[in-house]
Amino acid sequence: MSEQHAKMWSGRFREPLDPTFDHWQRSFGFDRQLLQEETAASKAHSLALKAAGILTSAEQSAIAHALDEIASRDLDSDAQQSNAEDIHHFVEMKLVEAIGDLGLKLHTGRSRNEQIATDLRLYIRAHARTLIGNIASWALALVEQAKAAGDAVMPSYTHLQRAEPVLVAHWLLAYVEMLLRDVSRLEDCIARLNYSPLGSGPIAGATLALDRTIAAKELAFTAPTFNSMDATSDRDFVLEYLHALTLLALHASRFAEEITLFATAEFGFVDLPEAFSTGSSAMPQKKNPDLTELIRAKVGRINGAAQAVTLLLKGLPLAYNKDMQETQEPVFAATSATGITVQLLAKFTAALKFRTDRMRAACEIGFLNAMAAATYLVYKGVPFRKAHEKIGNAVRYCLDKGCELNDLTLDEVKQFGPEFEQDFFAAITLEATLDCHDVIGGTARHRVREALKHTEARVQKLADAYASVDSTPEAAVHAGA
To answer: b or e along 179-213 (b: 16 or more beta carbons within 10 Å of the residue's beta carbon)?
Structure first.
């Protein structure tokens, strides 16, 4: 049989494909990553064929055994010798090699359109769950750093200018909240994609009376998809997944940017772990934040994948179009980039050393207690706008004098209003400035201790829930939502 006639679609054709076009249009070079998903979906389809009377029990068993063998083989070695057009073609060829013409019966009642839609759902479901487990590990590292920080303080910033003092733990927990939202987005994506396209055929549904629930249950899907045209052409879940990865990468980039800034001599808040830093080939003294700089860059590539898929899907008529083949490489690349980024961040975060002495010193200059001072006047009955003006005048006076609010005498502050008393100075200490933010979600010390306890429980629950997720592809295929 010629290579042309070995193709899955060759019966109608007489002329050979242009060799350059033939190799250009193949996807096996990248969709070979879907081997585990393809063999698992094929086994599920064989069960539906058995129930429909197309395969005997012995035939189905032989096919399933052969598929297991194919899934366990050295794909790299096979791939180098393969003329497969795509992963579906590859598996069919290997199946025929193993069990002869019986292998050709497996494609009864299905189309590659539904196969790739199924494989991608399985791939994203498995990798999203693995990624959630890695996010939990990073979140736990942030929580541990927050616990270790205790009541250590640091400046917070708006417009990259010092604003108010906060606990270091409060700052770290802000990133945990971002990560928990990232997890919820991934879980939502899993829930929405968790429907089986198998049995949809190329567009209008299978031409056999297949029980679609059989394959759906075997693959731990919630149910079969409800519309065959939508099922074979839907890539919403791909785009949703890539947008979720983009937001996760964006949060990683924000953290990386702050660490990069805080590690500079100008801030001096963080000592970079040497295991995650490099030096300069020219300047012997340098320790460069290569990890955080590269993480900042990764969000561009990951978001680029989402943008590429958006433009690929724009304006595509129903149902399947070959354009959709181009959605796969961005998914694989973004999944790999995000996975290693989060794994590295968990280890990097655990190794960070904070210079809490520098952080505290930075909180004691620059009038970070000005809002607490205005709040003092509010409790004395002064309208906030008036209090704001009075403290603003006091800050201006201190700037001219070259001192802080704490350094003024009572007589000096009284020139800005008769409401000031000796208790003013106790109200603007660093500790009092922290504790005046006594609201849920605020940086008051007891509020942060409560938040830390609550957040640790949430993160630990998440980590425990995903600790049992087997990240190997063959096992992850069956990891239902």
So the answer is: bbebbebbbebbeebbbbbbbbbbbebbeeebebe
Note the pLDDT of residue 318.
96
Chain mean pLDDT for the chain: 94
Strand ranges inside 327-454, DSSP E = 353-354
CATH of domain 370-428: 1.10.40.30
Which one from 2, 57, 77, 159 is the annotated catalytic residue? 159
Name the CATH architecture for the domain at 118-200+225-361: Up-down Bundle (1.20)
- What are the boundaries of each domain within the chain? 27-109, 118-200+225-361, 370-428
Q: Is residue 175 pLDDT above 50, yes or no?
A: yes
Helix, strand, coil share (%) of the chain residues, nearest 5: 65, 5, 30
Tell me what pLDDT residue 40 has: 98
At 5 the pLDDT is 41
Q: Which of 329, 300, 331, 325 is nearest to 313 (CA)?
A: 325
Contact in structure between 462 and 132 (CB atoms under 8 Å) = yes
**Residue 159 annotated in active site:** yes
Find the catalytic residue in 280, 336, 446, 454: 280
Give the span between the Cα atoms of 76 and 97, in whole angstroms: 17
Class of domain 27-109: mainly alpha
